[in-house]
Design brief:
Blueprint: H1 2-17, H2 24-40, H3 47-60, H4 76-91, H5 95-115, H6 123-139, H7 148-167, H8 174-188, H9 196-209, H10 218-237, H11 240-252, H12 267-280, H13 283-289, H14 291-310, H15 319-335, H16 341-363, H17 370-376, E1 385-388, H18 393-396, H19 416-423, H20 430-449, E2 454-458, H21 469-473, H22 477-483, E3 486-491, E4 494-499
Parallel strand pairs: 1-2
Antiparallel strand pairs: 2-4, 3-4
Helix pairs in contact: 2-5, 2-6, 3-4, 4-5, 5-6, 5-7, 6-15, 7-8, 7-9, 7-14, 7-15, 8-10, 9-14, 12-14, 12-15, 12-16, 14-15, 15-16, 19-20
């Protein structure tokens, strides 16, 4: 990151020597970025990012990803968290604060790179666009700081600006193009779905350049080079992913999709689609006067496709769609002199909508709920806490935040949905039946290696309808024996068990680093 910042500053100093004044608009946007970063220092992260940061700490303690810790996603995102964990350890500060600073720096580099393509804009318009970009990159993913979707959104902005400049046949320095390629590659490599974005932008570039198009460009070399290095590291350092995780994902992860089609149309996704439709109504203006907005519009279409291909309906999956469409509308307003009367009148509401949704999400979190806060009351940092919950956000909305020790190798019991559904079929798949027995066995083993002070079970209240995870576990005599060392402490939507005697020693050797 420091090298990237240095490259940007070096190029700006060189431009200044040639008589080009450093953009005041950029400095204003960087000030907005700094204010937002400082404001974010005291907050925490969502459950997925909490799990990511916890894994980084365990890897530094000697755990092996995909062997001691079973995670269904590829390793790049978790490797990215390693320096975050190390810096937090060196400085003795909260790891969430270090992540906030890192994301602020990443956004600052993105804005600085994007600013190099905005020299044709009037100073006021340039300032407005960059300031809003700072708000969008850090504000819209506020609750989901550090998510892969935020990272790819930050990387997409300068990459779209670069492709727009290429389509106009504007000169771009090799160093700047190479830097932007690296910034974007770090985001595009996080999910194979994200490769749709540079692919669609490249098709858009080909449609504009025709026979003059060439793939021999620094940013393309950066994307390919980053991808090859990542693939080599993947094969050398994370081979267990293919032998342990891929079979698990093929067997059970696909059933984690949205429960219905309507679930895909949450507030963030609907807002993104509305903004996309607004942009679609101004295609003629986009083509004629707004190259950056056009590139962001193309990227928005790609992100809309990615959202529906993943078909999970999770809020953070829609962040790139909502962020990119917001940036495209902002760019359209400052690039074009067309009247667009309706759009200019509606612009304040349209651009404020994503930030309003973010504020609503921040002010009304679903977890940790009052019941969950009551379930963890009295547990001290460093104590082992075991969770039995299908919803992974339950344990990871409190574990990192309260510095609890997590004894289990999985993020949660998410696979039980597929296992239970399999049991209800007339002809159950024996592989899923075996997986169910394996999950219980691993739970007993992991709890024996790091005996939880308290076990917290997410289950319906007495008399309330819903799936009861305890009925699945209580069928196994090994789990029943382990639970005999606990007594019931409380029962709400979470039943808590307090340990009253020592557990039997583990049947097998314990995992490293946990």
């Amino acid at each position: 990151m420091a090298a990237m910042c240095g490259t940007i500053l070096t190029e700006q100093q060189a431009a200044a020597r040639d008589g080009v004044t450093t953009s005041r608009a950029l400095w204003f946007a960087l000030a907005v970025t700094a204010i937002m970063t400082v404001t974010r220092l005291s907050g925490t992260v969502d459950s997925d990012v909490a799990w990511q940061l916890w894994i980084a700490g365990r890897l530094h303690a000697g755990a092996r990803l995909y062997r001691d810790i079973i995670e269904v996603n590829p390793p790049l995102w978790f490797w990215m968290a390693l320096p975050i964990d190390r810096v937090a350890d060196w400085l003795h500060v909260r790891i969430e604060a270090v992540l906030a600073v890192a994301m602020g720096c990443y956004a600052a580099v993105s804005l600085a790179a994007t600013d190099r393509f905005l020299t044709s804009l009037a100073p006021r318009r340039r300032t407005m666009l960059l300031a809003f970009a700072a708000l969008a990159l850090l504000g819209i993913p506020w609750v989901h700081l550090g998510q892969r979707e935020q990272i790819v959104l930050i990387g997409t902005l300068p990459y779209a600006a670069l492709i727009a400049a290429r389509r106009q046949r504007l000169p771009v320095s090799t160093g700047l193009a190479l830097l932007i390629g690296i910034i974007a590659a770090a985001g595009f490599a996080l999910k194979h779905y994200f490769l749709i974005v540079p692919g669609l932008l490249e098709l858009w570039l080909i449609s504009g350049q025709g026979r003059a198009w060439s793939w021999r460009r620094p940013e393309v070399m950066a994307l390919v080079g980053f991808g090859l290095l990542y693939a080599a590291a993947f094969l050398l350092l994370a081979r267990d992913f293919f032998t342990v995780v891929v079979p698990l994902v093929q067997l059970s992860y696909g059933l984690l999709g949205a429960p219905s089609v309507l679930h895909l149309f949450g507030p963030f996704a609907v807002a993104g689609l509305i903004l996309l439709c607004v942009l679609g109504g101004h295609v003629k203006v986009l083509r004629a006067e707004a190259p950056l907005a056009s590139a962001l519009f193309v990227a928005s279409i790609a992100f809309a496709g990615i959202y529906f291909i993943q078909a999970k309906g999770w809020v953070y999956h829609s962040i790139p769609l909502l962020g990119c469409t917001s940036l495209a509308i902002a760019a359209l307003l400052v690039e074009s002199d067309a009247s667009m009367r309706f759009l200019r009148l509606a612009a304040p509401a349209l651009l404020a909508l994503p930030l309003f949704l973010t504020a609503e999400e921040q002010l009304h979190p679903s977890l940790p709920s009052p019941d969950l806060n009551g379930a963890i009351a009295g547990i001290r940092p460093g104590e082992s806490v075991g969770f039995l919950a299908v919803e992974t956000a339950v344990p990871w909305s409190v574990t990192l935040q309260h510095k609890f020790r997590n004894p289990w190798r999985y993020m949660g019991h998410w696979m039980l949905g597929a296992i239970v559904r399999n049991e209800q079929q007339g002809n159950p798949d024996p592989r899923l039946t075996a997986l169910g027995r394996q999950i219980v066995s691993e739970t007993v083993q992991d709890f024996a290696c790091a005996p939880p002070t308290r076990i917290i079970v997410s289950r319906p209240r007495p008399g309330q309808a819903g799936y009861d995870i305890m009925t699945f576990f209580m069928r196994d005599p090994r789990f029943v024996e382990m639970l005999s060392h606990y007594r019931v402490r409380s029962r709400t939507s979470f039943e808590t068990y307090e340990r009253v005697s020592s557990l039997a020693p583990p049947a097998d050797s314990c995992r490293h680093g946990v």
